[in-house]
């Protein structure tokens, strides 16, 4: 019996092609997924990114699905949010082949039920793993068939219908696709909009020859920042490998915090749906719930991770959700995350007024933050308990354990310390009134963690 615990993660399947993932195993995953969703749907929609291994692995998955009597609708090359669009608009379960921003040797599978509802450990992924480990049962009935369908134009039209930029002033925008799927979707989505796109690294290349397709790493947006300043652009947009996340830089080339983007988009969504609920995870800036409340919305705080965000959106009927990792979720997009729709909101907000993006976003950036700081530790639990003991003994400190440790200090500063699920790491995020206060608190916490 194979042990798949190393590649079946909390939200997806991911591993090194040829070592952990191959066509035979992926075929079994496809059959197991078909068994899971067979009572709910007659077919599965499948898309894949630009990695060299993606077409073959997606075809193997399709063989597994059809071997259990279900049909397959193949949408071919796609961003992850394009696959979610197909799942939502066709009301079919889906599978996306991508390893997002991971290096070229990796690939993976993100699965969802009809309507882009996520499949994670608690919602079917553990069951799929067990089925494959124990051996997928055969099926004696008629095999399913495979058809092809191009949904890119429909996806683009759907997004443009949600955000109207037609009356906006013209903008010059640099877009860094990182050789990922943004190079596939941006030309169609932006076609006909009052936006002059300056493209960077639009060539689809799963070896990522220019830089890693992870815009949250500052090293990977250096080229974008320089190009924005060079051409005098109004803003820059960077997408990750599967283009479900976007990262924004302003006209100076300065990064705009994803928390500020969350607050900006939340205000726009609340203007359409006054009094609506907005989800934010617990490492977004405390400015997010403040701004949401000031605009009449109901902020709801959740754990980190898309399965928690989507579950809370379903439970509360939330209209929008944001994470500090630059994932943005929309009720009008089947509660799924789409970096493209968030980018369109930012560009619409910019084009509706005459000021620069730095001025627009300053209203949504109230505090200084550290960004995520990782520390390798031998015993995650012991180190977290040490931090809890030290800060818990101080006057006026409040601690909650919704997701790791969140410590609120008198005067408004706070930090969150969470263990990684897959590595011996503790992840620290700090926020305070200014950079000096942030640095002091970072040093205070790291002195305990790294002692």
UniProtKB/TrEMBL annotation:
Claim: Transcription is one of the keywords in the record: no
Keyword terms: Isomerase, Magnesium, Metal-binding, Phosphoprotein
Cofactor: Mg(2+)
Organism superkingdom: Bacteria
Domain Alpha-D-phosphohexomutase C-terminal: 372-446
Annotated Pfam families: PGM_PMM_I (PF02878), PGM_PMM_II (PF02879), PGM_PMM_III (PF02880), PGM_PMM_IV (PF00408)
Annotated ranges, domain Alpha-D-phosphohexomutase alpha/beta/alpha: 8-134, 154-253, 261-367
The family this protein is said to belong to: Belongs to the phosphohexose mutase family.
Protein name: Phosphomannomutase/phosphoglucomutase
Species annotation: Amycolatopsis heterodermiae
């Amino acid at each position: 019996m194979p042990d798949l615990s190393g590649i079946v993660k909390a939200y997806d399947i991911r591993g090194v092609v040829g070592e952990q993932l191959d066509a035979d195993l992926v075929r079994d995953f496809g059959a197991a997924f078909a068994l899971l969703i067979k009572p709910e749907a007659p077919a599965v929609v499948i898309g894949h990114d630009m990695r060299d291994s993606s077409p073959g692995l997606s075809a193997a998955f399709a063989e597994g699905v059809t071997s259990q009597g279900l049909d397959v609708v193949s949408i071919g090359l796609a961003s992850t949010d394009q696959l979610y669009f197909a799942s939502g608009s066709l009301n079919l379960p889906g599978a996306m082949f991508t390893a997002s921003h991971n290096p070229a040797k990796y690939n993976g599978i993100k699965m969802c039920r009809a309507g882009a509802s996520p499949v994670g450990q608690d919602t079917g992924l553990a069951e799929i793993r067990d089925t494959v480990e124990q051996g997928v049962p055969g099926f004696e009935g008629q095999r399913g068939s495979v058809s092809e369908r191009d949904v890119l134009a429909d996806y683009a039209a759907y997004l443009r219908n949600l955000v109207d930029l037609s009356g906006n002033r013209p903008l010059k925008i640099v877009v860094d696709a990182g050789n990922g799927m943004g190079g596939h979707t941006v030309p169609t989505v932006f076609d006909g909009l009052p936006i002059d796109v300056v493209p960077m690294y639009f060539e689809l290349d799963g070896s990522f020859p220019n830089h890693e397709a992870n815009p949250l790493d500052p090293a990977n947006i250096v080229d974008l920042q320089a190009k924005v300043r060079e051409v005098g652009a109004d803003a820059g947009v960077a997408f990750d490998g599967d283009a479900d996340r976007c990262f924004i830089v302003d006209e100076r080339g300065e990064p705009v915090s994803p928390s500020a983007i969350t607050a900006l988009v939340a205000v726009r969504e609340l203007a359409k749906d006054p009094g609506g609920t907005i989800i934010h995870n617990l490492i977004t800036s405390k400015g997010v719930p403040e701004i949401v409340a000031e605009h009449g919305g109901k902020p709801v705080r959740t754990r980190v991770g898309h399965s928690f965000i989507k579950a809370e959106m379903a439970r509360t009927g939330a209209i929008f959700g944001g994470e500090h990792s630059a994932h943005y979720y929309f009720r009008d997009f089947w509660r799924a995350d789409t970096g493209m729709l968030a980018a369109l909101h930012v560009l619409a907000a910019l084009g509706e007024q005459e000021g620069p993006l730095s001025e627009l976003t300053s209203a949504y950036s109230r505090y200084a933050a550290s960004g995520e700081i990782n520390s390798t530790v031998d015993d995650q639990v012991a180190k977290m308990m040490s931090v809890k003991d030290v800060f818990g003994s101080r006057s006026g400190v409040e601690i909650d354990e919704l997701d790791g440790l969140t410590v609120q200090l008198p005067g408004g500063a706070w930090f969150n310390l969470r263990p990684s699920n897959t590595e011996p790491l503790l992840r620290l995020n700090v926020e305070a009134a200014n950079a000096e206060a942030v640095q002091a608190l970072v040093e205070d916490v790291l002195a305990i963690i790294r002692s």
